[in-house]
Specification:
The chain has about 220 residues and is of the alpha/beta class. It is about 25% helix and about 25% strand. It has a single domain, classed as CNF1/YfiH-like putative cysteine hydrolases, CATH 3.60.140.
């Protein structure tokens, strides 16, 4: 388990994971084919977390700032990919959120008071569009979330000098400006391009790469 997720995983009922490179899995420029090859490994990890694959909602991810509110009562039997969104939030236990990344940042959100959680895909474009403050506002509107109660964690992503835009720094600025307490914001500080044995990097591998999977959910029936 990744150390940078420790603040999330000590919260009662909360489960957070960041699934890294899987040895031996062929990768290429076909994202969907590569993700399909990784899926059996990702399914196993989900089950180890105490969830089923049918509880795992994932975003299509189009480098935008649209966010879906996930309600477990409207889900089908098969694992769901929600089209046209780069963020997922839920107030329900028994729902697992998933975001794929290969240089962009996965942002974990956990409201310590209401139990609401969120997971965002935020690279250069998503950060420019303010997906993080938008998600916090949506969590406030739907679940009564207060920014000062939210734990925010930024997972491994590409950073300077490997990438000319320091969107990780901007994500932190946006979080604090939105009211997140400094002590509640964690940036893992890891650059995906610096360790290709552990992480996938779209830029460094020129598109022929796999995808890490960020997962966040609260156990329940």
């Amino acid at each position: 388990m990744e150390d940078f997720l420790s603040k999330l995983n000590v919260v009662d009922g909360l489960e957070a994971r960041f699934l890294t490179r899987v040895d031996g899995v062929e990768v290429d420029t076909d994202r969907l084919a590569t993700v399909a090859r990784l899926e059996p490994f990702h399914k196993n990890a989900v089950e180890e977390m105490g969830f089923s694959w049918s509880q795992c909602w994932r975003a299509e991810q189009v480098h935008g700032a649209e966010i879906a509110v996930v309600d477990k009562m409207v889900r089908g039997e098969d694992a769901e990919v929600i089209e046209g969104v780069d963020g997922l939030i839920t107030g329900d236990a028994g729902v697992l959120l998933g975001i794929y990344v290969a240089d962009c940042g996965a942002i974990y959100l956990a409201d310590q008071v209401t139990g609401a959680v969120g997971l965002l895909h935020s690279g250069k474009k998503g950060t420019e569009l303010g997906i993080l403050p938008k998600a916090l506002n949506l969590m406030k509107a739907d679940f009564g979330t207060k920014a000062e109660d939210v734990l925010v964690v930024l997972a491994p992503c590409i950073r300077p000098p490997a990438y000319e835009v320091d969107f990780a720094s901007e994500i932190q600025k946006q979080a604090l400006a939105a009211g997140v307490r400094k002590e509640n914001f964690t940036d893992c500080g890891i650059c995906t391009s610096e360790n290709l044995e552990r992480y996938y990097s779209y830029r460094t591998e020129k598109g022929a790469t796999g995808r890490m999977l960020a997962l966040l959910g609260r156990k329940g029936v």
